[in-house]
């Protein structure tokens, strides 16, 4: 299994603190959006309705994001959560850029900025732990 902030074993304390802060930022952004999705907020209904996937798309994405939050908060699975966060936030960013626009429903680009911030936090976690990802891929003989 991929280990989160415990890799590399001799890493300085500062690196572990940075990873913890990045995990908490990405988990907080994903978690706060769950209230809108599961709470049937009008903006969330409008967004998913515009995409033509209301309500099942909203519930499905909320469930996936909840699973990613749990993975991010458990140190041993946080890297898997970060990889999942990159995937989900890539979808959110592309949806904003190509379908609904950066400024959706007069939010001033807030949703787009949250998706971009979460993507960046998840990407930085993967960048810091890239040797662990490469070691896992090589061990499994993918490359």
TrEMBL record:
The chain crosses the membrane at residues 17-36, 56-74, 79-99, 111-129. It comes from the Bacteria. It is found in: Membrane. It is a multi-pass membrane protein. The keyword Transmembrane helix applies. Keywords: Membrane, Transmembrane, Transmembrane helix. It holds the Pfam family DoxX_2. The keyword Glycoprotein does not apply. This is DoxX family protein. It comes from Mariniradius sediminis.
């Amino acid at each position: 299994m991929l280990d989160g902030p415990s890799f590399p074993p001799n890493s300085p304390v500062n690196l572990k603190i940075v990873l913890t802060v990045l995990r908490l930022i990405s988990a907080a952004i994903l978690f706060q959006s769950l209230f809108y999705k599961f709470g049937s907020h009008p903006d969330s209904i409008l967004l998913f309705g515009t995409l033509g996937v209301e309500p099942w798309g909203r519930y499905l994405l909320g469930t996936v994001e909840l699973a990613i939050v749990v993975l991010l908060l458990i140190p041993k699975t946080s890297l898997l959560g970060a990889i999942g966060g990159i995937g989900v936030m890539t979808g959110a960013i592309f949806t904003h850029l190509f379908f609904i626009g950066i400024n959706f429903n007069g939010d001033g680009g807030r949703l787009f900025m949250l998706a971009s911030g979460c993507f960046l936090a998840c990407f930085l976690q993967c960048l810091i732990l890239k040797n662990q990802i490469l070691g896992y891929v090589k061990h499994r003989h993918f490359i």
